[in-house]
Amino acid sequence: MTFTFTTMASPVGELKLVANGSRLAAILWENDKPNRVRLGSLSEAPDNPILVRARQQLTEYFAGTRNRFDLELDFVGTDFQKKVWQALLTIPFGETRSYSQIAEQIGNPSAVRAVGAANGKNPISIVAPCHRVIGASGKLTGFAGGLEAKELLLTLEGCRGKTGRLEGF
Question: What are the Methylated-DNA-[protein]-cysteine S-methyltransferase DNA binding domain coordinates in residue numbering (predicted)?
Fold first, then answer.
């Protein structure tokens, strides 16, 4: 399977936007682990309409003028991973959830670690907001883009109060 891609500069580093036909399949970080997201061969196609729309919507998000994405997505993963990723899409802008809350939401409250693993494999970062998932204590935990990027995204969304504690629980 051949995927197309383009890149864009962002406040969290260069992002690689990947499409499968007319659907967004991945947003990869500048220093992403090579096997975190499995994709076929990639060919550059900056004029692919979904990539143009994704780049525009991400630019608006980073400028603070967009808080919802309107893109066709193509999640490639196991059924369990897809359940977790769909749950991520329900977390409102400016709010956070814990891994245990996501596990409960998908009907498997004992799968907290599996939810964490699926969250780490989320291929469509930012749009499927895995950055909004934090530890039950409110502590920031692992993130493919790095904890600095996670904190920047949460701050952009207003999830950090003046005390530095996460809001939204």
Answer: 79-158
Q: Is residue 58 within 8 Å of residue 44, measured between CB atoms?
A: no
The whole-model pTM stands at 0.88
Reported as a single tens digit per residue, the pLDDT across 1-29 is 678 999 999 999 999 999 999 999 999 99
Instruction: Determine contact, residues 1/20, Cβ cutoff 8 Å.
Output: yes
Structure tokens belonging to residue 70: 């309107």
Sequential DSSP letters for 39-65 = --EEEE-TT-HHHHHHHHHHHHHHHTS
- Percentages helix, strand, coil for the chain (3-state, rounded to 5) are 30, 20, 50
Burial class (CB in 10 A: 0-12, 13-18, 19+), 9: exposed
CB 145 within 8 A of CB 58: no
Active site residue 130: yes
Structure tokens at 119: 């969250």
